[in-house]
Amino acid sequence: MRKKFAFIGAGSLEFTMSLARDILTFESFRNAEFMLMDVHEGRLGYARNAVERLIKEGGHSAIVNATLNRKEALEGADGVLITILQGGVDVWRHDIEIPMKFGVDICVGDTRGPAGIFRFLRTAPVMLDIIRDAEKVCPNAIVLNYTNPMGMLCSYLQKHSKMNITGLCHSVQGTAHMLAGWIGAPIDELTYKCAGVNHQAFYLDVKWNNKDASPLIREAILSRPEVHAEELVRNEMFLQLGYYPTESSGHDSEYNPWFRKRPDLIEKYCTHSTGWNPGIHAYILDTYLERENSWEDTFQKQLDEENTDLDRGDEYAAYIFNAIFGDHTVFEFNGNLQNDGVIDNLPTESCVEVPVLASRDGIRPFKVGSLPDHLAILVGTTARCENLAVAGAIDGDWEKIYHSILFDPLTSAVLSMAEIKELVVAMFNKNKDFLPHFKHFPDACPAE
Question: What is the pTM of this model?
Fold first, then answer.
């Protein structure tokens, strides 16, 4: 029987191409139906052309359709993939620019802190609309979310719906490949247990052929300048904390008080890394602005390439679908789920990123136990700030949003309480048209 996959936000062409390609590599899905949906008709057309090419060059019997109607896309879906971005760059650029006016220097701004929280607040109502449609027309579907901020969105959705919703990020497997390369280990010989919250998880153990690989990682960082220079922030965190973090140096530099609170620290840690994201100010925003007028040429060049990559990649989604409703080969991965006793010393209402098993029985997390105490301080602060932001979104309570940003490690390292309140008011002023779920705004945030 033909399985149906609904792509919501299919105009994210790189994601759509790689995820569709991976799905087609499984025998159970070579005759799948791909239903692509996006609000941007032009991007949707390119996505359809890309998937049609994958099907043709792979010799598959799959079919692809495209629609601007979300409910039509979701109708009868077995698997749902969400890769949306709510608002264009002209909207979310203010997530980076307003904090900078107050002295809070942000590199990416898609996960937490003032930038990530307001991105969450804008995106949450749209995500919930997607899930409400899915509840009506594909209530048994497996929903996999790639949209950031991962932790807060998944927590918000999992509190509103009983659908099977899991959040996916590629930082865990991506960092594992990087560490394996540093120590010369074939990736299939490296095993690990990784846990925390999205973009702030740690490898609690890393083994190469069942032997602790941490000393080899430490040796590589300390003895090889090119390894040390690749990830200045993350390597410093590993050397000081004893556990390697999952997310890039640029991302990680935003989630703690140690690397971005002074210009000299930004120069030392966030400027000269040779990895993909060293941590310079507005790195992702600048990248989007550069692409704003060239995306169509970029997409066309991808479609015009002679050889299409048909080999399976490292994203988790297709493996998960295959485990649950394909050939049922079980698959272990790291997913974002509610903390129902999985990590003992993080709040139970938090969304945590933990080892998970996908099988014909669904998606089940492995028990992690407790994080090391010092990691629990860092990750626990993050989790509680995110919980407060989620509660603020659910209740429409601006003060909970203020308090969640008040305790953000980077923001509170730079600003006073009064200054943080000013920042939050300014961000509410800029975003209030996207926040219909809020009952009222700060008194200093007059209606326009």
Answer: 0.97
